[in-house]
């Protein structure tokens, strides 16, 4: 107290000022020490999380190598361990966001990579072939039988008031009519016009089809239907303005011939295809000889260049014997057609 009283006033103020600065410095240092302690704690958490991540990576590497020995997963040697990480107050105070490692998906991480299609050759799968149906006694007897006196093919036309139905639905109706056992003898189904449906059948099978269709009360056989009639073209809006009778007649014949050629090409059974084409040309004279030659070359291209004419004697003689009343599979014969 005596010293305090003896000191000048400015000295006392200077002492109090220094004491205040010292207190402020102590408070600042205390805050800095607290911050350093917090950073050290956070750094320790990050080191622990890094150790856990490194151990997990090592486990996943072992699992990946067991699943695919040729595949090498990324090693953990490039990642810093806890012993390689330096401690210090310069670490960010937001580093605790990485303290909790994201959940690892072992199933996704350990999945081996797919082999490259360019470098890995996979075995080619051999396509399965359908087993051939055994030869029946009926087919063998038909092969050795004499040519039928009524051998040939014809169209049966029936009215279809419901318009154009899908061919698959028409074939399903054959089962109801009892034609499913010999469905392959109905070689083609088409629509020459909107309200008429045509069946291409063998002459020996016409009575069976007519009798089956007669089970339907509304079924009507159009016996006098003429597919080459010029009146059919008048129903087409494209020919409404055409008045020449000769042009309409020739145009109807051309359209009918093109339809017959498409029918022959849809059969997919070579000997039946050639037999039907021969019947269209030489029996009914619906197609020309030139059109028959072209069909013959499509059916037997290897034979066409060996002979000057496909109308050779061996072709005419063998054609009627290998196609007597043929029975082919419905999938090969009944092809969808709307013309």
Automatic annotation (TrEMBL):
Region (Disordered) location: 62-136, 307-339
Biased composition (Low complexity): 72-83
Top-rank taxon, per record: Eukaryota
Basic and acidic residues bias locations: 307-316
Bias-annotated ranges (Polar residues): 62-71, 108-117, 318-339
Protein name from the UniProt record: Uncharacterized protein
The organism of origin for this protein: Mucor circinelloides f. circinelloides (strain 1006PhL)
């Amino acid at each position: 107290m005596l010293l305090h009283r003896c000191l000048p006033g400015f000295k006392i103020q200077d002492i109090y000022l220094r004491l205040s600065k010292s207190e402020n410095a102590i408070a600042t240092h205390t805050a800095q020490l607290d911050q350093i302690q917090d950073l050290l704690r956070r750094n320790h958490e990050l080191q622990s999380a890094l150790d856990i991540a490194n151990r997990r990576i090592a486990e996943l590497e072992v699992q990946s190598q067991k699943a695919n020995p040729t595949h090498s997963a990324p090693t953990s040697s490039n990642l810093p361990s806890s012993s390689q990480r330096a401690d210090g107050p310069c670490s960010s105070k937001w580093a605790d966001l990485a303290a909790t490692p994201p959940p690892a998906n072992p199933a996704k991480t350990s999945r081996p990579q797919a082999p490259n299609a360019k470098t890995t050759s996979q075995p080619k799968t051999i396509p399965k072939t359908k087993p051939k149906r055994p030869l029946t006694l009926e087919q063998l007897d038909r092969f050795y039988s004499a040519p039928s006196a009524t051998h040939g093919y014809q169209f049966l036309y029936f009215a279809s008031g419901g318009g154009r139905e899908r061919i698959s639905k028409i074939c399903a109706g054959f089962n109801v009519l009892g034609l499913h056992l010999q469905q392959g003898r109905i070689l083609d189904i088409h629509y020459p016009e909107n309200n008429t449906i045509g069946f291409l059948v063998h002459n020996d099978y016409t009575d069976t089809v007519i009798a089956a269709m007669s089970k339907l009360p509304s079924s009507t056989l159009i016996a006098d239907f003429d597919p080459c009639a010029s009146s059919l073209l008048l129903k087409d809006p494209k020919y409404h303005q055409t008045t020449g009778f000769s042009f309409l007649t020739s145009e109807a014949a051309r359209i009918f011939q093109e339809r017959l050629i498409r029918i022959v090409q849809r059969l997919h059974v070579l000997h039946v295809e050639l037999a039907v084409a021969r019947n269209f040309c030489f029996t009914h004279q619906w197609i020309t000889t030139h059109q028959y030659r072209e069909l013959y070359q499509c059916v037997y291209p290897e034979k066409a260049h060996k002979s000057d004419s496909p109308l050779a004697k061996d072709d005419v003689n063998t054609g009627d014997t290998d196609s007597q009343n043929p029975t082919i599979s419905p999938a090969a014969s009944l092809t969808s057609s709307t013309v």
